[in-house]
Amino acid sequence: TAALYIVATPIGNLGDMVPRAVEVLQSVDLIAAEDTRHSVRLMQHFGIETPLRAYHDHSGSDTVDYLIGKIQAGQSIALISDAGTPLISDPGYRIVDAAISAGVKVVPVPGASAAIAALSAAGLPSDRFIFEGFLPAKQQGRIKHLQALQEEPRTLIFYEAPHRLLASLQDMQAVMGDEREVVMARELTKTYETIKRAPLAEMVAWVAADSNQQRGECVLLLRGAVVASTELDAEASRIMDVLLEELS
Ligand code: SAM
């Protein structure tokens, strides 16, 4: 049956393309791509000849209607982004939302995503985490955003652009303190893959001193805030004891 396939593509290393992704991209009628020129190379590499069409979340609703209409008429469409999993800090939300509302089947074809790859090798607690995507580009907004996350106990995952990496790390240090651990996962799956864990003060000094560390794509992860056992906890457990006493 016709469907909208959400297809993950590699985040650097073409060897990470999953076989089902190739099969699906070969067999659908149309591929909606974030940047068709960028995706042409992937298509050539895997011998995929399916026509490409540009899709962004800011494409007009006529584009969304056109694509959904095609699926309703029996054609299958695959959505890809420039790298990794669509919708993860990438276009796709609007068309998936519209597809679901229109009763069109949506099928994920999972593969690489930088956030999950980084988390899996970061050495930070991974049982609970939050994905924050990109921090605001301007410092004032970034600091405010980080302040709101100061007490978050879960591991935090951020995407960052190379030219803002150092500024973001410095703001993280200012808000979270020198000792909070950060992991920089840079150029994952590529030749210069670097994964480093260090306290923020140390990481800022290291990245500032080595401009090579400010190149390429990067995921930043912060250890969550340690929820210290406070007087409040002591009071809470005293109340709990009283309540349990009542129950027995
Ligand atoms: N949809 C993609 C995914 O599933 O990972 C993310 C797209 S987002 C526009 C691009 C950001 O992802 C980059 O700025 C960087 O933070 C991160 N990223 C993508 N590829 C990466 C890689 N090979 N190594 C480290 N970070 C990467």
Automatic annotation (TrEMBL):
Superkingdom of this protein's organism: Bacteria
GO cellular component: cytoplasm
Chief place of localization: cytoplasm
Localization: Cytoplasm
MF annotations from Gene Ontology: ATP binding; metal ion binding; rRNA (cytosine-2'-O-)-methyltransferase activity
PROSITE patterns the record matches: ATP_GRASP (PS50975), RSMI (PS01296)
Reactions catalysed: cytidine(1402) in 16S rRNA + S-adenosyl-L-methionine = 2'-O-methylcytidine(1402) in 16S rRNA + S-adenosyl-L-homocysteine + H(+)
Database matches in Gene3D superfamilies: Cobalt-precorrin-4 Transmethylase, Domain 1 (3.40.1010.10), Methyltransferase, Cobalt-precorrin-4 Transmethylase, Domain 2 (3.30.950.10)
Pfam families, per the entry: RsmI_C, TP_methylase
EC number: 2.1.1.198
Keywords from the named record: ATP-binding, Cytoplasm, Methyltransferase, Nucleotide-binding, rRNA processing, S-adenosyl-L-methionine, Transferase
InterPro entries named among the record's database cross-references: 4pyrrol_Mease, 4pyrrol_Methylase_sf, 4pyrrole_Mease_sub1, 4pyrrole_Mease_sub2, ATP-grasp, rRNA_ssu_MeTfrase_I, RsmI_HTH, SAM_MeTrfase_RsmI_CS
Matching HAMAP family: 16SrRNA_methyltr_I
Family: Belongs to the methyltransferase superfamily. RsmI family.
Role, per record: Catalyzes the 2'-O-methylation of the ribose of cytidine 1402 (C1402) in 16S rRNA.
Protein's recorded name: Ribosomal RNA small subunit methyltransferase I
